[in-house]
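hey
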């Protein structure tokens, strides 16, 4: 009876006083940098705009009891700007929010996990589809493909609006450019060593090829490092390969990933490796010796230089969370963690985040980033459960055996992370380390220029 009355009040208030507002899908059309390709350029790489770009399309609202804003509740639209001037309308809106919060608090009291609200999350079905496809790859039901995995993760964030055809055309363009450049240098394009050399040069140097049947040249400059919001705090998509393809600039995750996508198409052997907040390419020579290719600068670097940040501990190397070469299967498993992170950024905590992070660790046990996503989920869950139960005394809170187990799981997760030797790297320290990357690049450029001068014939 009470619930009926509340429902009727909500309906009356909504109809009488509040305005629905809608978000529209837009397309941010971006083309490849004109300076990259002078006379023949890539087709425009469309970067679609989700319902609410770089913010959750629907913030999972659990009411005031959860300590979260309820503004995003899809069933209770906020008053419009024009409507906000009406004091009575605002009061009714607050009343509705309080009623909804109370209903939610009562219905959530007996839960032991975040509610699964995929049915009210527009676009979230793409995350489930991507998860299932990646699971099929890892279970051997589909061919392992890094291109597929990268596209699935980024397309899920864009709610299915990316064009796979354009994505493939963009990658194929760079492959064709490399092969044509090798051919003009008189190198054997069937040689895997030559192909790897050409791929490295694409990231390292300015390359020119002659357009077929024309007297013009096509120029490719090395990709730029985008120092603006390189961690994607303000714009999550700054970490995406599609952003790199659309703009010609990327960061320390998208650049190595693009290198590996092109390596996959060129059928050359290359691996991904991590250091704190950073990733790079690992390569192996004919004698089995490993070396590192820093895709952000286009130069080979030593393990000692990678470790120079001071945040790569010996324990972290022994536990294989850093500097460990990851093959295609490992990277696809890691992309499940990216899927969890993208979902969390768009929609907040939901059992999907836990499922994707756990699957990533299942296939890649040393994935420190998946472990951290899972541990953070557990921490948020403990806080949320305590919140919706009215902030009881800790002893009363943990008198519930199920909650006690949830808290124990959280503590065990952090102990496991500590045992890996992981050390967090502050953003300021990472920025300083990036500056050292640029200094190293300048030094190597000067050395290269000096050697070129020495090679010039005497007049």
């Amino acid at each position: 009876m009470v619930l009926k009355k509340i429902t009727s009040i909500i309906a009356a208030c909504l109809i009488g006083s509040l305005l629905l507002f809608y978000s529209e899908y837009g397309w941010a059309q971006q083309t490849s940098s004109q300076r990259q390709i002078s006379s023949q350029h890539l087709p425009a790489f469309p970067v679609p705009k989700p319902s609410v770009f770089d913010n959750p399309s629907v913030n999972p609202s659990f009411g005031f009891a959860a300590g979260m804003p309820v503004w995003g509740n899809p069933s209770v639209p906020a008053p419009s700007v024009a409507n906000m001037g009406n004091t009575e309308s605002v009061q009714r809106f607050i009343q509705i929010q309080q009623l909804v919060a109370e209903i939610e608090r009562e219905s959530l009291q007996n839960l032991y996990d975040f509610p699964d609200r995929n049915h009210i999350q527009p676009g979230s079905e793409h995350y489930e589809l991507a998860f299932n496809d990646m699971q099929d790859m890892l279970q051997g039901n589909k061919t392992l493909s890094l291109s597929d995995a990268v596209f699935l993760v980024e397309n899920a964030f864009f709610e299915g609006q990316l064009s796979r055809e354009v994505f493939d055309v963009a990658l194929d363009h760079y492959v064709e450019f490399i092969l044509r450049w090798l051919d003009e240098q008189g190198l054997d394009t069937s040689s895997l060593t030559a192909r790897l050399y050409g791929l490295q040069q694409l990231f390292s140097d300015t390359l020119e090829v002659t357009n077929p049947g024309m007297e013009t040249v096509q120029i490719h400059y090395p990709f730029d490092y985008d120092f603006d919001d390189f961690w994607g705090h303000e714009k999550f998509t700054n970490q995406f390969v599609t952003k790199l393809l659309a703009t010609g600039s990327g960061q320390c995750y998208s650049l190595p990933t693009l290198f590996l996508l092109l390596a996959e198409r060129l059928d050359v052997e290359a691996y991904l490796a991590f250091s704190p907040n950073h990733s790079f390419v690992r390569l192996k020579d004919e004698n089995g010796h490993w070396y590192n290719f820093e895709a952000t600068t286009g130069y080979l670097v030593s393990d000692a230089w990678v470790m120079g940040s001071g945040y790569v501990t010996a324990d972290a190397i022994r536990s294989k969370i850093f500097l460990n070469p990851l093959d295609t299967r490992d990277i696809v498993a890691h992309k499940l963690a990216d899927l969890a992170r993208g979902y969390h950024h768009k929609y907040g905590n939901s059992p999907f985040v836990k499922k994707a992070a756990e699957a990533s660790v299942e296939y890649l046990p040393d994935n420190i980033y998946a472990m951290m996503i899972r541990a953070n989920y557990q921490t948020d869950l403990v806080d949320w459960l305590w919140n919706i139960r009215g902030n009881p005394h800790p002893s009363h809170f943990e008198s519930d055996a199920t909650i006690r187990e949830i808290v124990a799981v959280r503590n065990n997760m952090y102990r496991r992370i500590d045992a890996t030797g992981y050390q967090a790297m502050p953003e300021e320290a990472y920025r300083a380390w990036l500056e050292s990357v640029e200094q190293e690049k300048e030094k190597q450029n000067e050395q290269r220029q000096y050697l070129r001068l020495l090679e010039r014939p005497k007049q």
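The mean pLDDT is 78. Residues 1-29+61-113 form one domain.
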